[in-house]
Amino acid sequence: MSRENKVIWSEGLFIKPAHFQQDGRYTESYVNKRCDSQHPYLWGFDELTLDRVLLQQGKIAIKSATGIMPDGTPFNIPEDDPAPAPLEIQEGALNEKAYLCLPLRSSETEVFFEHSESGMQRYNARSIEVNDVTSSTYDKTTLYVGSLRLSLLLENDSRSEYSCISVADLVECSKDKIIALNEDHIPPSINACQSPRLMSLMKNTLGLLQQRSKELSSRISASATGTGGVAEVEDFLSLQLINRYTQLIRHLTLLPTIHPEALYQHLLMLVGELSTFSDQRFMADVEPYRHDELHTAFAPLDQQLRDALSTLSTKKRSFSIPLKEPKYGIYRAPVNDPDLFDTATFIVAVKADLPTAELQQMFNNQAKVSAIETIRDIIMASLPGINLKLLPYNPRELPYHDGYIFYELDRSSNAWQSLKGSTGFAIHIAGNIPGIKLQFWAVQR
Question: At 437, is the secondary structure helix, strand, or coil?
Fold first, then answer.
């Protein structure tokens, strides 16, 4: 026999309290099933406040709380339901969660009266007086109502007959009976806007997005060349992504309520899109959403988000190093920041009035690169200098250069050591290459 089937009301029915009880169970079950089909995680706290004073006395207590139990039962402490008795923690207790618990529905007696034997009843009966709102004389009627019989239990207590929500993660209870809680713990919630940890996560994410938006805007404005380089296009696409999610996250922070799973979904999409601009081009796997372990779900995602935004900010950047007019066939490229010798890749871009294959052959044979201070010794001794590695494509960090060929300076060359303490690079072109044009670029690694 199902305890949740609909009551059949018919003429001549001898009505007993059980009829109304069955009708109440049917209505509750109907509502729960309809809600559960729309969202799998419609349970948790809407608001929770612990008594911090009692934590200093070795007790965990709830001052106020609203929300929904996993079995679909709403609660409102202390307005509708009395707060559960404080849970006293034994000295030396370590690494246990405390739970708000409610006895599960059963076919046994569910109501506790003053004269009843205490057991697994769900409700405490109490009498109240209510007005007849349809009467002009405001007649009062005394009736019994039931408030939830909530209790606090520890993780290792027997909880198989309870519907439970974790309220706190106990780290330890000291000899002085002072309780230390894991402040990273996020109780299951139906409203991220009422969770201090999740609200802080949203605001911090918004701040990072706004900062990256300003950085990208300034970078694009400062380096816009109109040449449509891959790096420049990537900056525009990154800025488009950042601006889109900046407005979305700002909107979420202003809402009165948002479910944690919806927030997780938005952040997951943000990290996934940001991974497009990473070196790997894909997103590493993260912990799946766990409603009963929100910190486990959000902490790795938050770290990936920070890493992705940091990478976006410090991503490889290229900038041109001006070449001074050649003297005796030697071009000079002063490097004002000596750290670039260790942190950057250097590229020579070459163009001339020659077919590409012929230009490659002539430049390979006639060009030498070394430190400014050693270039003359390299030339006089006919030494090779820093090796030049021909690149088969226009480097993605550089603007598009039509008709140019590109060489990367080989950092493993012996001549690279001469750059220590140097003021820059020197490029010597022996002989004449018709219409030669040179550019020198540094790409931060």
Answer: strand
Domain-ending residue, one of 313, 347, 372: 313
Distances from the Cα of 169 to the Cα of 52, 95, 98, 359, 431, angstroms: 14, 7, 6, 70, 77
Give per-residue pLDDT as tens, 242-251: 999 999 999 9
273 shares its domain with 203: yes
57 with 179, same domain: the answer is yes
Per-residue pLDDT tens digits for 299-312: 999 999 998 888 77
3-state SS string over 315-338? CCCEEECCCEEEECCEEEEECCCC
d(CA 373, CA 418): 8
Q: Tell me which residue range forms the domain holding 213.
A: 193-313
Residues 246, 359 within the same domain: no
**CA separation for the pair 385, 372 (Å, rounded):** 11
Q: What end-to-end distance do the CA atoms of the chain give, in Å?
A: 71
Alpha-carbon distance of 342 to 419, in angstroms, equals 10
